[in-house]
């Protein structure tokens, strides 16, 4: 599909000076063309990570709005700041990373025979699947929160009113997102860095951070579209969450994540990994002692 890039290394009549020398500013070496092609081949899998960021972006917006309406008292004089609930995502990520590196990878290594337990793409796929569970939990908690508001007669409570439901109901969705990030972010970063040419490793790192930017913009776009499309049938995302349908929005995100997961699996199935060169000690029958083998997955 990307063989058209080979034309950049083909010399034509317009690419040659009168002296017979090629115009270097119009041509690229075969090596450089292959490097660009390797980056282009990664883009479909890279794009699958954008929705992952979009799905977790509401933890910094709608989830904080939810926390403001819930009981945040720890003591009589101290309340948990709504935005500080993000700490449960970071804690879950750190704990998962430590558990994976110290325990889980050893168990997986016995079953798969791979040094890292599972491949980078498998690790990212696990993270994307877990992220869906985070939004399922978010939808369920929001349904519970609204039912408490209805049972307490506080559907139209003034701004700042506290519902009789603990803010710790939000911990599962934050924690599951942290677990998903520990799999998805690490797997995605290792994949980009491993499959990128050595001279373009910085480009791979830039693609990783570009995912975060694109995912945030897509989240804003999704909220805007939901606002416009739900005006006639009853606004989903209202300032008064008790009268809104934020749980429907979460279920919409779950559906999009499911489609994105299918797209990811298709991209992984048809992805061609770069050749992995390995050195073999000189022995009779091994020629000059160096051979190049193609692997289905790099073990770096």
UniProtKB/TrEMBL annotation:
<dbReference type="InterPro" id="IPR036259">
    <property type="entry name" value="MFS_trans_sf"/>
</dbReference>
<feature type="transmembrane region" description="Helical">
    <location>
        <begin position="121"/>
        <end position="141"/>
    </location>
</feature>
<keyword id="KW-1133">Transmembrane helix</keyword>
<dbReference type="GO" id="GO:0022857">
    <property type="term" value="F:transmembrane transporter activity"/>
</dbReference>
<feature type="transmembrane region" description="Helical">
    <location>
        <begin position="249"/>
        <end position="266"/>
    </location>
</feature>
<dbReference type="Pfam" id="PF00854">
    <property type="entry name" value="PTR2"/>
</dbReference>
<dbReference type="GO" id="GO:0016020">
    <property type="term" value="C:membrane"/>
</dbReference>
<protein>
    <submittedName>
        <fullName>Uncharacterized protein</fullName>
    </submittedName>
</protein>
<feature type="region of interest" description="Disordered">
    <location>
        <begin position="281"/>
        <end position="300"/>
    </location>
</feature>
<keyword id="KW-0472">Membrane</keyword>
<dbReference type="InterPro" id="IPR000109">
    <property type="entry name" value="POT_fam"/>
</dbReference>
<comment type="similarity">
    <text>Belongs to the major facilitator superfamily. Proton-dependent oligopeptide transporter (POT/PTR) (TC 2.A.17) family.</text>
</comment>
<feature type="transmembrane region" description="Helical">
    <location>
        <begin position="80"/>
        <end position="100"/>
    </location>
</feature>
<feature type="transmembrane region" description="Helical">
    <location>
        <begin position="42"/>
        <end position="60"/>
    </location>
</feature>
<keyword id="KW-0812">Transmembrane</keyword>
<feature type="transmembrane region" description="Helical">
    <location>
        <begin position="205"/>
        <end position="226"/>
    </location>
</feature>
